[in-house]
């Protein structure tokens, strides 16, 4: 079996989506599947300059085809060379796995797959959530009616990462078979003195709990709501130190710096930029509380990473694994407004034992349900059923029945 994954960009600056596709492909390779990625050389502000174009290369342990982006229109990223290459080479693959909607590469791949009768699956990546569809609403309605509804209708399967995401596809009117299969996380290498290291690095007292925001700095994730909420707690003499880890558009990041300064939080806030590897593990293991007050997350890989690291979480119903977090008693789910968020954060800041209990619950839950290898095995069985023209196996990992 030979599979091609198509995704607009695998820039490390995109965080979750890049990590997901690389980890998923690596896990599928261990299942004996011959698998490649096709993407652009997009790197948000610029391009990935150290990769050959229009040829298969080894990139971060997986085989990748990079094609030059013809322009950058947010996530659309057209690539004429990709179009020509895929038209000539699609028959070399048994199945395509398309990531994302409203973007040139997966749209183009779906259309060529239909013309040349190659089966494909689609991972919608939260793009059918009500909040996501409300952004650039008219453009998305036109795009949907022109391309996406047809492309989704002809997919061999739609891959959702949560029950909530599957319900979004149903509301959108998508009829093909749907599979619900979460994303995975790798258990971190234990850093025994993480809490001491992080406090030494950022000059934080042992008595001050650390609040971590680790995600892309984007208005969808609502870091400004977290900053505003913490300013209210600071006014009440609540002790905390905020670490904001992630990159984003320079203008937006600058606005966050200005907000922190205007609210007099500079002495208890650090912007550390994009982190990975050891530094990321250090933040996740050394902090006391993870907060993501997001408008919308189809899965929320950052939340899963916090959980597997034993970090209690506070998030909103916009994160579609929120029901699983609540069911596992791994954190607190609140509406995305200041008073509710303030109450949840204050409760955990003042309750070390509860933080420990929630964190341990989340760690055990993530180890059980967010295993990349188990997910790859399920997805491989879906691919095989599609190729054999058989009914799809039930790949749903039901977390609604999970009990503690």
Describe this structure in words.
The protein has 404 residues and is α/β, with parallel strands linked by helices. It has two domains: 200 residues, Glycogen Phosphorylase B (Rossmann fold, 3-Layer(aba) Sandwich), CATH 3.40.50; 175 residues, 3-Layer(aba) Sandwich (Rossmann fold). It is built from 15 helices and 16 strands. The chain has an eight-stranded mixed beta sheet, with helices on both faces. Helix 1 packs across helix 15 and helix 3 packs parallel to helix 5. The C terminus is likely disordered.
Q: In terms of topology, how is this protein built?
A:
Blueprint: E1 2-6, H1 16-30, E2 34-40, E3 42-43, E4 46-47, E5 56-59, E6 62-67, H2 80-89, E7 95-99, H3 104-116, E8 120-123, H4 130-134, H5 137-153, E9 157-160, H6 163-171, E10 178-180, H7 194-202, E11 210-214, H8 223-235, E12 241-245, H9 250-262, E13 269-273, H10 277-286, E14 289-292, H11 301-308, E15 313-315, H12 322-327, E16 331-333, H13 338-349, H14 352-369, H15 372-387
Helix pairs in contact: 1-15, 2-3, 3-5, 7-10, 8-13, 11-14
């Amino acid at each position: 079996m030979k599979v091609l994954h198509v995704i607009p960009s695998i820039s490390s600056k995109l965080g979750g989506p890049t990590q997901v596709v690389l980890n998923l492909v690596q896990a599928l390779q261990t299942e004996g599947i011959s698998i490649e990625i096709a993407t652009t050389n997009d790197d948000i502000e610029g391009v990935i300059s150290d990769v050959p174009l229009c040829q298969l290369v080894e990139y971060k342990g997986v085989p990748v085809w990079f094609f030059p982006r013809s322009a950058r229109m947010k996530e659309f990223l057209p690539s004429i060379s990709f179009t020509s290459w895929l038209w000539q080479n699609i028959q070399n693959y048994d199945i395509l796995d398309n990531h994302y909607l409203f973007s040139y590469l997966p749209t183009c791949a779906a259309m060529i797959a239909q013309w040349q009768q190659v089966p494909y699956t689609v991972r919608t990546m939260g793009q059918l959530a009500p909040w996501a569809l409300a952004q650039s609403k008219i453009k998305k309605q036109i795009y949907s009616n022109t391309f996406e509804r047809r492309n989704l209708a002809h997919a061999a399967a739609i891959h959702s990462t949560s029950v909530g995401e599957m319900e979004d596809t149903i509301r959108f009117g998508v009829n093909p078979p749907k599979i619900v299969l979460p994303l995975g996380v790798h258990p971190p290498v234990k850093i025994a003195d993480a809490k001491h290291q992080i406090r030494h690095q950022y000059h934080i007292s042992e008595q001050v709990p650390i609040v971590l925001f680790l995600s892309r700095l984007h208005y969808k994730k609502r870091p400004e709501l977290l900053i505003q909420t913490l300013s209210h707690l600071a006014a009440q003499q609540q002790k905390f130190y905020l670490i904001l880890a992630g990159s984003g558009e320079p203008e937006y990041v600058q606005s966050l710096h200005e907000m922190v300064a205007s609210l007099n939080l500079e002495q208890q806030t650090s912007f550390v930029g994009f982190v990975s590897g050891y530094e990321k593990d250090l933040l996740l293991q050394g902090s006391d509380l993870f907060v993501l007050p997001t408008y919308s997350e189809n899965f929320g890989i950052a939340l899963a990473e916090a959980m597997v690291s034993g970090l209690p979480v506070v998030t909103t119903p916009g994160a579609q694994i929120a029901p699983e977090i609540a069911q596992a008693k791994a954190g607190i789910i609140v509406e995305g407004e200041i008073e509710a968020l303030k109450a949840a954060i204050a409760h955990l800041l003042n309750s070390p034992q509860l933080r420990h209990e929630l964190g341990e619950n989340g760690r055990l839950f993530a180890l059980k349900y967010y295993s990349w290898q188990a997910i790859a095995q399920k997805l491989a069985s879906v691919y095989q059923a599609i190729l054999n023209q058989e009914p799809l196996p039930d790949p749903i990992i039901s977390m609604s029945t999970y009990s503690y």
